[in-house]
Amino acid sequence: MTEPRWLDEKQARAWRGYRRMRALLDLQITRDLANDSGLSDADYDVLSNLSETSPHRLRLTELAGTMLWSKSRLSHHLTRMQQRGLVDREECVGDARGSIIVLTEAGLRAIEEAAPHHVASVRRHMIDLLTEDEIAALDALTHRVITRLTTPT
């Protein structure tokens, strides 16, 4: 086995800072979302993904893949959202085991009411703290890491 390439002090500080920032930022944005709209982070993720498609519907498998959730976990969450009238399910023609998740009128209203508050929270806690150069660097960095993690080796 080869010797590990340990992080130097500067790299370790950056890594720890990123992990702490991510945890605190996720916690604050999720808290703001719940306080402002009564939606959970998962609710918002489902509703925003559906609202960005035309005509506001996605196969369960596609939605699960986008959210990086298992179909089972997403199905349980969707059942709770369905009970609240935010989404509905339709059978998938030609695939008896598949289902289509549909954004309801109540779900569309919920995401339209939540989105301005959510964006304000994202701005307040992150975006407005960055310069244009830092936003460009963040964009480049995040997409480089995403490409590495989503490209088969």
TrEMBL record:
<dbReference type="InterPro" id="IPR036390">
    <property type="entry name" value="WH_DNA-bd_sf"/>
</dbReference>
<protein>
    <submittedName>
        <fullName>MarR family winged helix-turn-helix transcriptional regulator</fullName>
    </submittedName>
</protein>
<dbReference type="Pfam" id="PF12802">
    <property type="entry name" value="MarR_2"/>
</dbReference>
<feature type="domain" description="HTH marR-type">
    <location>
        <begin position="11"/>
        <end position="147"/>
    </location>
</feature>
<dbReference type="InterPro" id="IPR039422">
    <property type="entry name" value="MarR/SlyA-like"/>
</dbReference>
<dbReference type="InterPro" id="IPR000835">
    <property type="entry name" value="HTH_MarR-typ"/>
</dbReference>
<dbReference type="InterPro" id="IPR036388">
    <property type="entry name" value="WH-like_DNA-bd_sf"/>
</dbReference>
